Request: fold
Amino acid sequence: MLGYAVRRSVVALGLVWVVATLVFLVIHLIPGDPAELLLSQGGFAPDPAAVAELRTQLGLDRPLPVQYGSYIGGLLHGDLGHSLLDEHPVAEEIALRLPRTLELIAAAALLAVVFGLPLGTLAALRAGGPADRALSVLAGVSMSVPVFVVGTLVVLVFAQKLRWVSAGGFTPFSRDPLEHLALLAMPAATIALGLAAVVFRMTRSSILEVLGRDYVRTAMAKGVAPLRIVVHHVIRNALIPVVTVLALHLGTLLGGTVLVEYVFNWPGLSGYLVNAVEARDYPEVMGIVLVISVLFVLLNLAVDLLYALLDPRVRHA
Amino acid sequence: MERRDLHRLAVPLAVVGGIVALAAAAPLLPLADPVHIEVSARLTPPSEGHWLGQDEYGRDVLSRAIWGARASLAVSFLAAAIAGIAGTALGLLGGYFRGVVEILTVRSAEAVLCFPPLLLALLVVTLLGPGAGTLIVALSILYAPSYARVAYAETLAARNLDYVVAQEALGARSGRILLRTVLPNVAPPLLVQFSLTVASAMVLESGLSFLGLGVVPPEPSWGLMIRGARSTMDQAPWLLLWPCLALTGTIVALNMLCDALRDVLDPRGRTVSANPFRAFVSGLLPATEPAPAPPALLRVDGLHLAIGHGPGALPAVRDVSLAVAPGETLAVVGESGSGKTLTGLAILGLLPPVVRVTGGRILYTGRDGTTVDLARLGEPALRRLRGDELSMVFQDPSASLNPVHRVGDQVAETIRAHRDLSAAEARRRAVALLDRVGLPDAARRARAYPHELSGGQRQRAVIAAAIANGPRLLIADEPTTALDVTIQAQILELMAGLKAQAGGMGLIFVTHNLAVVSEIADRVVVMYVGEVVEEGPVAEVFGSPRHPYTAALVASVPEGDDDRLSAIPGVVPPLHDLPAGCRFAPRCGLAEPACTAGAPALESLGGGRSTRCRRWREVA
Ligand code: SF4
Reply:
């Protein structure tokens, strides 16, 4: 197990490097000069002097390998560069906002698992029955509704019409834990709706598949009690693909919370990212993309390790 | 494609088609100008001229919803198509040339998958600025790798197909062959991929437009409409309704289409309901009937099994009777489809849910001396017997062991299901059992996972679990078939040895291997298409068969010890098309008109022998 963990970690480190390099290359090798692009908003040809100045400011006039070296060197020191607009260090802003985004994702994942897993198991054990059919249709629809539609409707109904909660925002946990959680609930539930549907579907099909396996029949032939068969033989094996799919979706959410944070005014990474994209503030966009992608890679590493923990065969692969 | 498939596809296809048609026809419809601003009429509710009302700039909502569909659909379909063509080409190239080309195409496309999708789209928007064109570029980049993967895998698979290899050997241009072979194969998965891509491209497009980073105002788009309506939702909440409904409805329809396509094109995903567990948890059969003439151990009387319900039910097993005495080994032989395995499963009450007992009795006399009918025993009572008094070993030991639990624990599980023991004590006994079935270094092997053992060792472990509680009857269903020949012999030896030690244990050995039968069994039952055709002591039945089928089986055994019962002319008739009269008649050299007129009965010949052939005296 340890050897496997080490091997996977090395691969993940390599991927982190690949991601960092890709981010660097995207900005430096795409056709067109970023400085020129940045200044050419509004359809006017930019002033060459201004472009040259910006190039120097961005360090774009240095040879590529030198730029790459200082970029990687900066990363190793946790330096993600500075905003073009206000010189604010990108790393600092990310450090402030990232935990809020992660909290939102974690809360959504928790809700999704709490609802999706038991309901998926139930539907599989009663496959074809009325409960299964109703749940499957419900899941199909929940998966299809875009998250910002759900969010907007949630705000309309619960905040505007019923006035149960305020329309969104954020209160630090340290200031008022209850209000913090109350404000977390709406965006988390919005994300969780679609995610729970994914967990539900995956759990259902995975359990159905495992139920047909020979070792389940063998366990029955041993006279093992039904509940123990479900818990001990079925769920653990069925969980393996569920974990993978859930993690994949969580990774997608790292970028996908943008919409929900926007709808609910949740001050995570997204507001920052959307503003940066609108202003074409390269260092900010690069920094956020890099951090999230690295998290994405690390998440996949965590999944691989969890996978190995659940399935002893993987450790030797 | 079956009609049922067409039905499944019809509804989502019609909905998606309708939406596409409506969007395509937008310029022809008598719609208001979607970008015409009329500030004085802002937020007016539905009226005669504006069926769905007017938005925050007084623009016509109906017109914007239909024109908005154009934008969403155009972006999604174009992006999906570009991604599909580019990705498929990359995958084909990578799979065909391998090596460096593979790295340049498939592997580098996969680098895209290192980034969360929405984030990558935002990155592209940063570089190119918002707009429909940017969206198409971003979404194409995003989705091309998935196509590349599918095409790559199919190309690799096609490369190894026999006829591709053969044609290449004949000097044909392999590129063209590959294209001809691969494209039809990749078409179905790519079609599914395409509809998936359209649906998720639409979600992303509307999301980006909603953020103000997609379609540029004043062009209509559903995402933009929701964005606009959101800002005025306290005054005019109904404006949210239409774009939300349109967007969600379209995506639901697209997803339904994906599901239907996947089911139709990939029938593997369809086998959902056939799991024995449902019968297991819900199956409470009627109460026990009084049993006449109790057997010493087990007697199956006139057992009938049917697959399915109603008039379409297939007679899988008909009128099967057999008996096992304590300490006796009964072999049940027959080709696949003879019903031998189902008969074994019926004894333990482990039939798949589609198979029902439609007649007969399975009388079993237990340790406490009472006789029960296993065919009518309730599930809780059956469960107490299974693994304790009645045990079963299945064909494939690798599939019979749960891959995520240690071998020793799986043996201990049988003990703890029936005996009130501490975990440590059960584990100690499991090690002793593994030692008894000849697993070297049992204490260490008990802690191993199934994949760490060889096939033979796994079957030993499965047998250890089966005999853990000293069962009175052990049913072994082809326990050596999945193993190679030398291991087969060892397992047979083990089973014979265990039976000798256990004294009174009865053994039912289900197999198609006659050599194994003569080695291990006292008596044999020969089955053919769900019926017993001959029964008797092994030496006599094989020495002088009294049924043409048995005779043919015996004659087909080659000199070696690996026989496959394949040399009998003709084929086993399918259950839905059984011949009238004697079921063996179409393959029987002795068949006469009387044989097909009426089904022969099982005739007792004395000396424990019986046969289901009217001309048994003439069987050489
Ligand atoms: S009954 Fe007739 S057809 Fe059937 S096995 Fe005997 S001889 Fe052949």
Q: What stands out?
A: The two ends of chain A are 11 Å apart (CA to CA).
